[in-house]
Design the sequence.
């Protein structure tokens, strides 16, 4: 056979049901990036050629490669510019981190930060005054954790020429006080872009190098691929520059945005972009943003939140969204719609009702954070994929509903948070992801927290909606076979002859280890297209290779 690579392990989870009587798989052969054989260690002796690399992982557990169903690795290079505030737990810590960053900059230099959790301010109104003193009057742009809003200083607003409310094609807002002057809070991308247009951006070459570093870190947690929910700005230049340096450590599938105001020519451009790409990345879908976030009051709920907000879609005319979605679907383009609020989720399902179903052209809803039971059956009936991030409920909400997200929704809607198990039990495919940089990308934690409904390695934190916890197999399917379904690859995300040679090797069994143990266990190896992209020091070549 002359395989390029042979991987052996005591346990191999192929993620499909083997026929009764077949021996368990212990070895997998790869040729030209594709799985060419599966069998026993004894079988593997017949697959070798003079150039075959053989790796025996011993007691490690081999699975299909893990795929994060919702990430932003290229745009995230800019989204994570500056100071990381994601670990700050009180206003004093936020002030200290920003002040330290500002102290090393000139008086007119920009200060950037990201990951700010509004819960830090315990219900205080979010305004630029919260960061003004910390940066000493410098222009500053501080993203909130969900990347849908930002706090900016008076100097930043002055540089951008923003001195009052603005109108946009989408429902973005420059929040203003009673005097009509901006408060320093910007909601959604169009409003943030007014200031971001003046913020320094790292050169393409620098971001290309950072992208490699980021993807290597992701591979070390078990990831071999990701569904990238954007293709913004100069992302294609960054990807091209990165592939000029080396192959990417992950296989990336991009979904460029379809924005409010799109016309027929804009849709034609999105259709033409499908399939474009490089060696390990390609465009494979289109992304819509139908609403914002609950924390910011920009989601689309059936009834207003506790502050009277989250009452509208991001698209001023939702019929325009429906028209665009159906045009793309008719052209055979898979779609993914950001829909967090219950009204937004309902409208996506309404828009997709009657659209021809196809396993190779899946349509999916991203996030669906609060979901009425009546809509669950519609997902199954209409063949719509649910793309969810249960890691968010453990990081940004609390079991006692004292957090901003839950307080805005009220107990009834907060109790419908991230209904992953109800959807799975109803037969709905559920792909799991992190939404990095909103939440950490570590796939081991993603698996664990989908089961635990609390942060991994923090057993004293009460779980949020523990009845919605997934089984170990459901969680692993969310990162493997269901990720493949969500990408229009039926039969993918499994170890079988003819499949992609993307693998993750765990040092514990992800189907049997405790979730906290899994979250803390090193990854022995990851491979993409039959090429090893991460390998722990303990992985050794077998005597078979010698």
Sequence:
């Amino acid at each position: 056979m002359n395989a390029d690579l042979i991987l052996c392990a005591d346990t191999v989870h192929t993620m499909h049901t083997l026929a009764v009587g077949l021996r368990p798989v212990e070895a997998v052969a790869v040729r030209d990036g594709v799985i060419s054989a599966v069998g026993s260690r004894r079988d593997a002796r017949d697959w070798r050629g003079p150039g075959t690399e053989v790796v025996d992982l011993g007691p490690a557990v081999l699975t299909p490669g893990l795929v994060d169903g919702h990430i932003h690795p290229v745009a995230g290079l800019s989204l994570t510019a500056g100071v990381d505030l994601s670990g700050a737990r009180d206003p004093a810590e936020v002030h200290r981190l920003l002040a330290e960053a500002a102290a090393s900059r000139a008086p007119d230099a920009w200060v950037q930060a990201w990951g700010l959790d509004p819960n830090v301010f315990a219900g205080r109104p979010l305004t630029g005054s919260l960061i003004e003193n910390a940066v000493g009057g410098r222009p500053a742009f501080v993203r909130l954790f969900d990347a849908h809003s930002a706090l900016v200083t008076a100097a930043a607003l002055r540089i951008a020429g923003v001195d009052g409310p603005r109108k946009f094609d989408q429902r973005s807002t420059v929040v203003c006080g009673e005097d009509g002057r901006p408060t320093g809070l910007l909601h959604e991308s169009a409003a943030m872009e007014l200031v971001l247009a003046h913020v320094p951006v790292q050169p393409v070459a620098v971001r290309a190098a950072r992208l490699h570093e980021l993807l290597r870190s992701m591979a070390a947690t078990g990831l071999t691929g990701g569904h990238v929910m954007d293709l913004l700005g100069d992302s294609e230049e960054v990807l091209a520059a990165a592939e000029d340096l080396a192959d990417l450590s992950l296989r990336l599938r991009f979904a460029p945005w379809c924005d409010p105001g799109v016309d027929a020519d804009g849709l034609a451009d999105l259709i033409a972009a499908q399939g474009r790409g490089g060696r390990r990345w390609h465009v494979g879908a289109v992304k819509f943003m139908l609403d914002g976030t609950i924390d910011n009051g920009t989601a689309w709920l059936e009834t207003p939140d506790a502050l009277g907000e989250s009452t509208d879609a991001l698209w001023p005319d939702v019929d325009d969204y429906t028209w665009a979605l159906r045009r793309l679907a008719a052209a055979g383009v898979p779609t993914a719609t950001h829909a967090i609020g219950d009204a937004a989720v309902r409208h996506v399902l309404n828009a997709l009702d009657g659209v021809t179903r196809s396993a190779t052209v899946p349509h999916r809803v991203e996030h669906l954070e609060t979901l009425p039971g009546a809509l669950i059956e519609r997902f199954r009936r209409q063949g719509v994929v649910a793309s969810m991030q249960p890691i968010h409920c453990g990081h940004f909400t609390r079991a006692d509903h004292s957090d901003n997200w839950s307080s805005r929704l009220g107990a009834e809607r907060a109790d419908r948070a991230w209904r992953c198990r109800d959807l799975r039990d109803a037969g709905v495919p559920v792909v799991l992801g992190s939404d990095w940089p909103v939440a950490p990308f570590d796939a081991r934690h993603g698996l664990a927290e989908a089961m635990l409904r609390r942060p991994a390695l923090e057993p004293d934190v009460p779980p949020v909606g523990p009845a919605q916890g997934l089984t170990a197999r459901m969680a692993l399917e969310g990162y493997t076979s269901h990720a493949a379904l969500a990408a229009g690859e039926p039969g993918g995300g499994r170890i079988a002859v003819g499949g992609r040679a993307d693998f993750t090797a765990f040092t514990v069994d992800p189907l049997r280890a405790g979730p906290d143990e899994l979250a803390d266990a090193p990854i022995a190896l990851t491979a993409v297209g039959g090429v090893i992209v991460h390998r722990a020091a303990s992985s050794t070549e077998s005597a078979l290779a010698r």
